[in-house]
Give the backbone structure.
Amino acid sequence: MTAFPDDWFRADVFWRSENSHGWVAERIRSKLSLGTVDFAAEAERLTEVDFGPEDRYQGDDEEAYAERQMRAQCIEDCRMRLEQTETYLWGLGIAGIYHQFERDVREVVAAFKRPQPPKLSTAKFEKLCCYLVQLGYQIKQSAGFDHLDTARLISNAIKHGNGPSFSELATKRPDLFPEHPAYVLGRKPGTRPRMDVLRVGVVEFDQAVAAISMISPEIEKAIRPAAIRR
């Protein structure tokens, strides 16, 4: 058996990924959490630019009623766009830390699996999971796997829009589509939400960070002893 210093493999692979993950996650969260937004108040403010204040539309005639309806619809449209933008920003944050995790897994596989798998740089998530299993880590048995998988689906949905990952996300996490009528009414069979009603934020971001923070040391614990024995 070849003897290595205890921290030899960690310094080369695991130490770097652990520290970069924590630093990136903290930076993303701090940037996106600089200020909370009252979407209703902000929608009102934006609407006033075009429609003026609410008290401008008084009266019981048909024209005043139509103008009030138009103004109310504008407020609702603004609120929806703001919420969509907020979801997109947090979704990009989740995608950032998730894809960094994928990169780190590829580096671990490249370091320890022999022969090195072909086309590793483009390997899909399921294939990366198989490589980890072959190296001795049962990733799908981790308590953090479900949140990691949700982060994967959110990342792909944000990137590609409607597609296989979006459909899977809608099936597994209907709670992320709170304004979808089918969810509100009890998930009617055969219905599917639209991309614009997806809502993710700091809760989902923190869940993804916690999952990766749990899984990364588990990977090291499972793989490193076997690698040292080789």
The chain has a mean pLDDT of 81.
